[in-house]
Design brief:
The complex is a heterodimer of chains A (about 110) and B (about 110). With about 110 residues, chain A is mainly β. Chain A contains no helices and eleven strands. Helix content of chain A is about 0%, strand content about 55%. In chain B, about 0% of the residues lie in helices and about 50% in strands. Chain B has strands at about 5, 10-15, 20-25, 30-35, 45-50, 55, 65-70, 75-80, 85-95, 100, 105-110. In chain B, strand 5 (about 45-50) and strand 6 (about 55) form a beta hairpin. Classes of the chains: A mainly beta (about 110), B mainly beta (about 110). The interface between A and B is medium-sized, with 25 and 29 residues.
Chain lengths: ~110, ~110
């Protein structure tokens, strides 16, 4: 079983809808949680960076972390066709260094 | 503000050859990590360099080695290339309290 599980999708939504993404993990030592967006054949782009449990909002993006359930979520409001990409969750235990453990990514398609 | 840069963009090598990939971190960052991303999968951690020393290493064979220079730039070297080494190689930089910022990657094809 992988340390970080993520539904590969694809997740198809109409423009303007809310996109809901999530990851589950097994390592209780993880403390830092990130979401990345990756367009085809490009490097991942950092969207959200959170520490421990709670919510964080940045524009159209909201990240939620529930450490008791080992479950994290990303919500994208008012989705646009330009949001079509693969979304990767990543996490680290915060020990010396920032080694990230990634989920496999969820492919999202926002249809006009 | 220049982000993370990597070179070359694409590379084609033959089995058994050696390859060197290069990375310049984002301004103000002192830590460089390397990841391998196979098609359709999430990136896998190779190793991390801080203060010119390898600080952490993932589950990759010794054929994978690296170096960090005093200006924080880094190289990834892979010896005795295998077909399975074909992937997107990503460099990421960070500093204390920041997330990892990734470069555009180098796409390596081994034939």
């Amino acid at each position: 079983q992988k340390e970080v599980e993520q539904d590969p999708g694809p997740l198809s939504v109409p423009e303007g809808a809310i996109v809901s993404l999530n990851c589950t993990y097994s390592n209780s030592a993880f403390q830092y949680f990130m979401w990345y967006r990756q367009y085809s054949r490009k490097g991942p782009e950092l969207l959200m960076y959170t520490y421990s449990s709670g919510n964080k909002e940045d524009g159209r993006f909201t990240a939620q972390v529930d450490k008791s359930s080992k479950y994290i979520s990303l919500f994208i409001r008012d989705s646009q066709p330009s949001d079509s990409a693969t979304y990767l969750c990543a996490m680290s235990d915060g020990a010396a260094g920032n080694k990230l453990t990634f989920g496999g990514g969820t492919r999202v398609l926002v249809k006009p | 503000d220049a982000g993370v840069t990597q070179s070359p963009t694409h590379l084609i090598k033959t089995r058994g050859q050696q390859v060197t990939l290069r990375c310049s971190p984002k301004s103000g960052h002192d830590t460089v990590s390397w990841y391998q991303q196979a098609l359709g999968q999430g990136p896998q951690f190779i190793f991390q360099y801080y203060e010119e020393e390898e600080r952490q290493r993932g589950n990759f064979p010794d054929r994978f080695s690296g170096h960090q220079f005093p200006n924080y730039s880094s190289e990834l070297n892979v010896n005795a290339l295998l077909l399975g080494d074909s992937a997107l190689y990503l460099c990421a930089s960070s500093s204390s309290g920041t997330g990892e910022y990734f470069g555009p990657g180098t796409r390596l094809t081994v034939t």
